[in-house]
Amino acid sequence: MCNNECDATTEELAHPPELMFDFEGRNPTTFWQSTSWKKYPKPLQVNITLSWNKTIELTDDIILTFESGRPEQMVLEKSLDYGRTWTPYQFYATDCLDAFTMEPKTVNDLTQRTLLDIICTEDYSRGYVWKNDKTVRFEIKDRFALFAGPRLHNMASLYGQLDTTKNLRDFFTITDLRIKLLKPATGATMVDENNLSRYFYAISDIKVQGR
């Protein structure tokens, strides 16, 4: 998306990782950008790892804002032991069966009994037209609502469950978060091998709220 060739060694043409965490609202928008998919058909796989070196209890949705099209395949992973081991949080794909051999679901399919299930969703993997369609979410508040009600009026019920159910408390707790980008947006059924520079990942913002 550079007017010229992107160049990590030149400040005006660079898109380093810290641009995912700077102040939003600038014009033009700042963003991190990966290398292009030059080695197709070898997958263009990129990991983004966030480490806090402390325990974080998530209090709101995790929101990624893509300046490129949203990835066609992605996995959000979490660690509870400072990155030594990782478990999936959620899978994202345009076709969950094809990508991960999982039936597509949404957070609305979950119940109190199945809240801890790891699902694959197709809601966030299609191309975008408007600003709101640039985001990929991990819905924390919708999961809270299974105990606290749709408007989160009964937070006492949620906190009671978190205090007494270790597995539930651990589900909303992280020390590290990893975003595994597995396939960039192609916008078509066939990849244009003569124009591979158009396929890449670009993220302008990552929001993780917790305590």
Automatic annotation (TrEMBL):
InterPro entries: Laminin/Netrin_ECM, Laminin_N. It comes from the Eukaryota. It holds the Pfam family Laminin_N. One of its GO terms (biological process) is tissue development. The keyword Membrane does not apply. PROSITE patterns: LAMININ_NTER (PS51117). Gene3D superfamilies: Galactose-binding domain-like (2.60.120.260). The keyword Disulfide bond applies. Residues 1-211 form the Laminin N-terminal domain. Keywords: Disulfide bond, Laminin EGF-like domain. This is Laminin N-terminal domain-containing protein. It comes from Perca flavescens.
